[in-house]
């Protein structure tokens, strides 16, 4: 990113001459202290923010000039150190410590923004984020700070656009009263660069356009110069360049009743004989501290570590800063009289440990985070005192995780908790569920599979989220709990009845057939049958409310993924199926496969072998309702499809797995069947999944 053109060097030149005049300021009877805050930012955390190219170096040069030549007490903020908090703290300190006779000078060079509709504006500290106003320092905050200062003479210079809402009318000489008559007036003023579309050209020399013009203006022979005259002379030399600068009153709630008046020294044509002045006796300062290795700075100059004995200093006002590792910094101000011997005993307070930050990421997102031993509640990016903490992270259906974490002073601790599903879960109806992990499989059948149907075209499928699947089909007893709790009547009971197999070969619809009487004697251990898809949806809603978990039917893809259990053959157990692996019409013929028994009725759930993932009766016993409307598989074999489900609407719902009467070819894993959602048959049941 290329920085924007800067006028830091220009503003530095202005400040140097203004400060020189302020040394001889002839406004008040009592001389005060010169205090300055100098800010130069050429490094921003957000690299999309433009800034003056030489802001940092010009600010550094200005600060050195003020301290060395004009005796200013300077607070200097440069680059990354000049964040919003640091600027705000420095402004507050400058304002609060000022006395009426003091002159305050504030200089800013960096990025700024002005809102044109209402005239608001902001200075951008080094930690500002583009467009985030909370990260900006609002000019109204600066006004409020300066409103409370005791200093009557404040000059703010902004090498950046300044908002209209913060300034008054241009300073006009006709509005100023005689200085001698307004000793208690205020001259809170601002000199700033107005917003303009293009920056004025550089002069080609070391200094910018404004500095060069200012240098020529200094040839004025008057021994007194007001801010207005200086500004007028400056504009006369820059009017052809297109540069726009403003000199206005700063709105701080104080009556702007006078202008800065500077008395310039008169150059004498002849050098008079030197006058001998009796030198005042110097003062002596000794410093001790309660903290080992306390570093001492006096008026911004490093003096070494305490104890310090008999430092020889001129009489005057001083500011001392003390800092030591593990202790809070302190700042004190004092005066030294001529010949005084002063001793300072500094007492630094032990620094409280800086808090650390804690950021936790969890999966699943609904997991709860609890502190085991402390009465604390977790919130994102919370602060904690340094030390060790015990955490428990848990979520329904997942195994809880216990972990001790350690928070370090001033550091951010990041922790990740990835919970895994429980190996097994049993609800209040004795339904047992096991986890089915996410994965990829080939759905459908290969083209050479015997008795393959046209709607089984293979596609590559990814199941992206784990789920819990019921080990067995829902039993008569588990359905009965629902009926007893709600009084529910199935569609077969309230309508034309259900279909039952009569004489071993004919399906008959009769109003006497339903889940209580599906054409064979029922017990609570048998899988429930003769319930429609619509009946099952009512059962699911009841179970969700009762258990507080998200029960559902599996999608067709989830059902086949779980039924295959990692296999790619016609059956989960291979290319043939035996009657000890599934309950079906095993006496049906399939080339190369042995013939078994046809039991002609369902078995109690879980009577036969499980598949490789521990699920039972996925093939045979009962056809099982799936959540999808029946339709063609989406996509094609060359694309990986994530979590497919059927059409948005339809007339028939998918059935999978085959029933106790189904022949060997039709009970293949890939075989698809469908029925209207109101259909009720003595060979159709269901099993559930829980979505975590």
UniProtKB/TrEMBL annotation:
InterPro entries membership: CTDL_fold, PEGA, Sulfatase_Mod_Factor_Kinase, SUMF_dom, SUMF_sf
Domain of life: Bacteria
Keyword check for Nucleotide-binding: no
Keyword field contains Transmembrane: yes
Domain Sulfatase-modifying factor enzyme-like: 433-689
Domain PEGA: 284-349, 356-414
Pfam families per the UniProt record, alphabetical: FGE-sulfatase (PF03781), PEGA (PF08308)
Keywords assigned: Membrane, Transmembrane, Transmembrane helix
Residue ranges crossing the lipid bilayer per the database entry: 7-27
Listed name of the protein: Formylglycine-generating enzyme required for sulfatase activity
Gene Ontology molecular-function annotations: formylglycine-generating oxidase activity
